[in-house]
Design brief:
Oligomer: single chain
Number of strands: 18
Number of helices: 11
Helix content: 25-40%
CATH class of the largest domain: Alpha Beta
Order of helices and strands: EHEEHHEEEEHEEEEHEEEEHEEEHHHHH
Amino acid sequence: MVPDRFDLVVVGGGPAGATAAARAAREGATVAVIERARVPRPRRCTGWLGPAGVAMCADIGLVARKAGARPFSSVRLHSWDLQRSAHIEDPELRGWLIDRGPFDDAVLDCATSAGAHTITGVEVADIHLGEDEAAAHLRDGRRVVGRIMLIADGVHSPVGQRAGLTPAIGVPRLPCCAFVEFTSRSKGVGLEIAVGASRSGQVVTVMRAGNGGRVSLMMRGEPAEVRSAFVAFNTAAAHKGLLPDDLPAPRMRLSPAGAALDLETHVGKRCVLIGDAGGFVAAFSNEGIYPAMRSGWIAAEVALRALAAAVPQDELATFGPQWRRELADYLRMPNTDLSLLVPLVFNNEQMSRRVVRSFLLGQPF
């Protein structure tokens, strides 16, 4: 039987929440993870992790085989018109392509193996943040109480809003993302990117893993403008043989890329906002798995200190300075005007390498 009182209650069992739970449970804290989806989760989409994400997985005991990951060891960079490309190989530019459903389940398994209690298939209906406790009221009538709550329930974060916090979706002028999952006869594994010279910040990512993959475009602009740019790119890519010629209509959503940098705070009364809910997604690459996991790891460290502190709230307030020291460079856009840089990239191998390193490693140019 799962107890109803814990040191830490984590709302959301994705990479951010599960990593936080694994970290805290490993240190001896009692932890409950509440995940609204049923496990095993269905396949969601193809995603990628760079070297920092792979190292983060190792920290919680997750290896490529258990994660269902397909390693890649190079990146291909394309011009926006697909007339030029550069194949970048570098010992540091390695990572994994993953299927998000099984991957997320594997991260949650790491939390369970560390001793966390998982409650799946049930949604949080309401919360209460008191002077001494943080309680989650579930839709099935249960009440799960912790001394501290970590909130990782997605970009809209209804739980974060109930806590009086602004989630990532509340940041003005978020970029728009168009994406399509596709199947292919090819069994290859690879990561390709195309960067436009527009001031709207066009970045296309193509991920291939076995006979499936995903192509996405992130840019600032109205949805109709983003959709039009995405369809035009996909048509040109299909003509070049880079993508299938029968892609379905794109799906659209706002991306929380870089939103963490614009939120006033991630800390509420006895609670902390992490993962997509807190906008922990890289602004240049739109990669959110590693920063989500890292935000959860940092929040767990802060929560463990708060559990031992005379005034827990004062210790929770250190989350902001700590995540900014560790993640701000990874999350922000490169320190240059891409509209000026991109036309020069394919005339200079070193510059092509710098673009890919910025994309994959979160490094400034």
